[in-house]
Amino acid sequence: MSLKEIGNKLREERQRQGLSLEAMQQRSKIAPNILESIEEGRLETLPHPVYVKGFLKTYAKVLGLNPEDPELGLESAMEGVEPPRSKVRRHKPLTEVTPYPMQREQRRSNKAIILLVLLLLAAGGGYFIWRSLESAVPPEADNATSASNATEAAPAAGAALPAPKTAQQAPQLPAGINATSGTTTDEAAIDESVETIVNATQPGEEVASEVADIARNIESSQEDEADNATAAAEDESAETAASQEANATAGSADAKKNAMYQQALRSEPVVVHAPADGGGQSVQIMAMEPCWIGFTIDQDAPKDFYLYAGQRASLRFDKTLLLRLGNAGGVRFLYNDEPFPTSYRSGEVKELRFPPTPE
Which pTM value belongs to this model? Predict the structure, then answer.
């Protein structure tokens, strides 16, 4: 059977099943142009016969046909078909290629490299010599500079040295006062002596400088204390603002949880489980946050479910109920229609047993 006959059979079966070429391509993963060539029997546009035979089997399997069915004739479809010859590109013989002067170009490149290396060496040597001459100083110039500095620093010969300052000069007594006994007969001389002593005992320049330094130190310490007080006040204000923001965030989260709890109380249970006899005890689970819940009732097989925020589950049992909570802080409970308080935090994984075990 020829490829064209097999292609007609496959196309008729595809059309009978109501499949388009695009749907066939998605199911068989064969390119549309290959499918068209198979159905029309165009060998010149198909690849090697080995690949074509594989495409035919895949096509038949997608249509629900048996590729081994002799009536379909897939086994004998490509017998005697020669594969297409590959086009070989012919090159010119080597005798027609013009030889390239390799050695001459290599010599030129070697000369250029040697010249470049010599230029770099010359430039480096010149730079080194220039730096050496610049940093070197003649000994005569150094000695002359030292002598000049010494001459400027030393005082002129015969110049009088300044008298050392004393913290307080002793006052000179005016004429008419006895230096030993301090007595005189001239009242004007006594007044002048007292004024001279008072003026002489006033603080000098050095004492005034020390007083000014002490005043500056006191002023600086006062400024530092003011800066520290300002920084402490700013830190306290920042801490207060952060605390208020944290409290506001916590309050907002608690308000959202309470709203979800009220919504869950008013909603119908999305999960209801009870034994055949109805069960004598009940646990209502209200989700304020998403939570995975696993449960075991009266030694039955474990089961689980998932609650989203605002949803409620109702579980009834006779003897015991074991809960496994993936987000224990995100749910609240009613045990036998009474609030069952817990102190779990969001994200904690806990187990809870009903009736609760007394501590």
Answer: 0.34
| Residue found by looking up tokens 């608690």 in the block | 254
| Residues 274 and 286 sit within 8 Å (Cβ to Cβ) | no
Q: Evaluate whether 273 touches 315 at the Cβ level (below 8 Å).
A: yes
Q: How large is the C-alpha radius of gyration of the chain? A: 55
Report pLDDT digits (tens) over 111-170. 889 989 999 999 998 998 988 887 765 555 555 555 555 455 444 444 444 444 444 444
Q: Say which DSSP state 318 is in.
A: S
CA proximity to 312, closest of 262, 270, 256:
270
3: left (phi over 0), alpha (psi -120 to 50) or beta: alpha
Residue corresponding to tokens 């208020």: 244
Residue 330, pLDDT above cutoff 50: yes
Query: Which residue type does 239 have?
Result: E
Q: In Å, how far from its chain's centre is CA 290?
A: 28
Which DSSP string corresponds to 154-180?
A: SPPTTPPPPPPP-SSPPPPPPTTS-TT
| pLDDT tens sequence across 275-295 | 777 678 999 999 999 999 999
Q: Is the pLDDT of residue 207 over 60?
A: no
Name the residue ranges covered by the structural domains of the chain: 3-62, 264-354
Q: Which residues contact 37 (CB under 8 A, 6 or more apart)?
A: 45, 46
DSSP letter string, 249-285: HHHHHHHHHHHHHHHHHHSPPSEEE--TT--SEEEEE
pLDDT at 259 over 70: yes
Cα–Cα distance for residue pair 292/325, rounded to 1 Å:
6
Bond from prior residue into 139 cis (ω within 30 degrees of 0): no
Q: Name the one residue in this structure whose structure tokens are 């925020």.
A: 309
Q: What is the mean pLDDT of residues 15-30?
A: 90
Please tell me the distance from the alpha carbon of residue 53 to that of residue 122, in angstroms, as a whole number. 76
DSSP secondary structure letters along 208-242: HHHHHHHHHHHHHHHHHHHHHHHHHHHHHHHHHHH
The correct CATH number of 3-62 out of 1.10.260.40, 3.30.70.2860, 3.40.30.10, 2.40.50.100 is 1.10.260.40
Backbone angles phi, psi at 196, to 5 degrees: -65, -40
